[in-house]
Amino acid sequence: MAERRRRILGLNNDQIMHAMGIDDAYHVERVLAQGRNGVTELVTIEGAGPFVRKKMPLEDVNRSIWAALAGADCPRLPQVVATYEMPDCFVAVYDYVPGETLEDAMGRVDALDSDAALQVTQDVWEAIAALHACGVAHLDIAPGNVIIAADGAHLVDFGNARPIIGEAGEVEGATRPKGTWGFAAPEQFFSHASVRSDVFAVGRLLGYMLTGIQPDEKCIGEFEAALRDESRVALPVRRLVERATDFEPS
After folding, report:
1. Are the beta carbons of 204 and 229 closer than 8 angstroms?
2. Which residues are catalytic, by number?
3. Fewest C-beta atoms under 10 Å: which of 42, 82, 111, 234?
4. In the chain, what are the helix, strand and coil shares in percent, each to the nearest 5?
5. Which one-letter DSSP state was computed for residue 84?
6. Which secondary structure element, helix H or strand E, spans residue 27, and what is its range?
7. Are 68 and 139 in contact (CB under 8 A)?
8. 237: part of which helix (H) or strand (E)?
């Protein structure tokens, strides 16, 4: 697989043809998602795979994020096997993790018990810690972006991720990475996001697993009341959620 770990930085004629050759070598098994942010496909190549191939508009992609992911060594993050550039898109290919989203898994139960919820949280935080160590904040930790597999939880979807800059852990870019409503930290909407924003989202994710209630604008009152119900959420775990999701980031 080492020979497939290629990154094409220029777009002269030879490189375009080379990129197209790599792209054509993959066989599309099925389309996983498609929208304004590009297309995500399940692919194989020369009998190997399956892999996920994500094609992103050039104006939207942050190449440094994918370079950081390619250098990360964490089983909870996608293992990037190739990145290359086409005339109209940037392409990343990474290992496919068979499983279901946490959102789908939660659709079958009222809530998770504390042990199960804390194990998923630990797995997600392992991914976040590795990501932060690589200089990247995820900024969209939500049930739809966590895959529950046989070996635990995996974090996916890096379309909202930003490079970390400065000692305060703030993220690069003038635009605010809003994330998923109910899980994204308040500062992602009106101030400056940072690594602490990921802490907030993990706290909300834990609360969601413990209560089975979406912490969005419509249900936030019900969510907070369920957290305070000690017959549903043990006090030490509730305090963990409350500290992670404090409105004041410090």
Report:
1. no
2. 140
3. 234
4. 35, 25, 40
5. E
6. strand 27-35
7. no
8. helix 235-244
